Structure of Kinesin motor domain-containing protein:
Amino acid sequence: GSGNSRTMMVVNISPVDTSLEESMNALQFATRVRNIQLDTAQQSGGGVVEKNLQDTIRGLKKQLKTLKGAQEKLETECTTLKRDNARMSEQVQTIQTARLQSKAYEGLQKQTIEL
């Protein structure tokens, strides 16, 4: 196979006639093993997979940083909007109070004119 690793297999055979079948099986097995080729990613200890995972991690960290920045911006905007809302609520309350006082004053004026 290609890559930076080698695999070696030692086959022990016997010249004795009684071991002929076992020796032939061992040689056939060794031939099948010799034809096995490992995937490059497996040979390099998962280098391709590891690189892809590291790229994914880098991308996710960058995305997280961007999202944290956006979150901070939105939190600041939310705080500002809450403050503006509170101020406007006070203004509405002041206007309503002034309106009630104005109606009460008009009512008193009518009563005074009638007297």
Q: What stands out?
A: DSSP finds three helices and no strands in the chain.
